[in-house]
Specification:
The protein has 224 residues and is mainly α. The protein is built from ten helices and two strands. A two-stranded antiparallel ribbon has the order 1-2.
């Protein structure tokens, strides 16, 4: 038995019971504004940490289900998705979303060498696992960048990853998803534009070189 996980389960059970008692009473109806705001801030902290756990767990279960262990089959389920459905009550589409985001933040192991490569967005992974952002924040930050990743420099993309992760911790309060999305769109567009300009410049240089080569070849042919 994993004592850390068992202790956490007990803590979560107490939290669930406390939340249930609040919902079963008129506590929220009569709460002072400051009490309500502080309470919801705490709920948000818990919510984001739970979402992070679900995303990471989805990646782990999928990985273990693809090995000889067959985590899904040994759990009497047809797939990793079903394991998550049965344990959390989430819809299949929700689990697919967790799976998609798990792929964004998990380190990759190269089959040939066994080498472990960093996650696609390691800084935002840390922001997720630390509870700075949840599922919505991670998707808002990474979706615009994934759309351009194949045509921009990976080092510059890593810089944006760091910048966006820093945004999640600078205000001392949860960052709004729209803020992350707007920043990712703006930074991604600037990087994409720079990449496009570089490609255009390379193409122009290649065109000029080709023209010069053709002209030189033509003059040489004429002179022989």
């Amino acid at each position: 038995m994993n004592t850390t996980m068992e202790r956490t389960r007990e803590t979560m059970a107490h939290a669930v019971a406390d939340l249930r008692s609040i919902l079963d009473s008129d506590t929220l109806d009569i709460a002072e504004r400051d009490d309500m705001l502080g309470f919801l801030t705490g709920v948000g902290d818990l919510y984001r940490q739970v979402e992070a756990t679900l995303v990471v767990s989805t990646g782990v279960i999928e990985k273990r289900s693809a090995t000889a262990e067959r985590f899904d089959v040994s759990s009497d389920c047809r797939s990793a998705n079903e394991v998550l459905q049965r344990t959390t009550g989430a819809a299949p589409t929700t689990v697919k979303r967790w799976s998609r985001l798990a792929a964004v933040i998990k380190p990759e192991r190269t089959l040939a060498s066994g080498e472990v490569r960093p996650a696609e967005f390691p800084a935002l992974r840390d922001a997720l696992t630390s509870g700075a952002i949840g599922v919505d924040g991670l998707e808002a930050a990474t979706r615009p960048l994934r759309e351009i990743r194949d045509r921009v420099d990976s080092a510059e993309l890593a810089d944006i990853d760091e910048i966006l992760a820093a945004i999640t911790t600078t205000t001392g309060a949860p960052v709004m998803c729209d803020t992350l999305r707007d920043a990712a769109l703006r930074l991604g567009a600037e990087l994409d534009l720079t990449g496009a300009e570089l490609e255009e410049e390379r193409a122009m240089r290649a065109g000029r070189f080709g023209s010069v080569s053709s002209a030189t070849g033509s003059s040489r042919s004429t002179g022989t």
